[in-house]
Amino acid sequence: MKVYTRTGDDGSTGLGDGSRVSKGSRRVGAYGAVDELNAVVGVLLAEAVPSPAAAQLTRIQALLFEVGAFLSDPRGRFGLSEDVLHPGWLERWIDEMEGDLPPLRNFVLPSGVRAAALAHLARTACRRAEREVVLLRDGGDEIGAVIPLLNRVSDALFVLARWLNRRAGVADALWQGRA
After folding, report:
1. pTM score over 0.90
2. For the chain, which domains are there?
3. Could you tell me if 53 and 160 are in contact, meaning their C-beta atoms sit under 8 angstroms apart?
4. For residues 25-39, b (16+ Cβ closer than 10 Å) or e, as one string?
5. pLDDT (tens digit, 9 = 90+) per residue, 48-67?
6. Which of 146, 149, 141 is nearest to 74 (CA)?
7. Rounded distance, CA 120 to CA 78, Å?
């Protein structure tokens, strides 16, 4: 199978149900943003991320691939797993990491060690993916439990950034506001 098919040269792409739509459609925007998030998580995993966090990020990547497949099929033939439908496992991971962190009383600037900065970048990519999926839903598409999952993933990535900085001995860069 060749990577290039030339079928998209007109600006269209095939969906999971075989139909063709514009590459500028909301559906393509939604699963494209999820794919981009997955790639950013992959860049984060290229760093020396401690093994418990690396395992959770790998789990997130697999779920993001599943979500992308789900979003690519307007007929909904690709179901969602329990890990997507019930993201309590993400909440438990967030709680574990927060147990190692001082309470948050200020906004945190996205900075610190490289892995933490990449976790912040992944968080912002996740928020964009979430906005794209909300637009798809607002347009009348049934998107299941994707929004709560993405919301929880972005929370986890924020806490992960703080946790990675803490493990590296780097304090959160707090936003000081206006003088």
Report:
1. yes
2. 21-103+111-167 (1.20.1200.10)
3. yes
4. ebbbbbbbbbbbbbe
5. 899 999 999 999 999 999 99
6. 141
7. 30
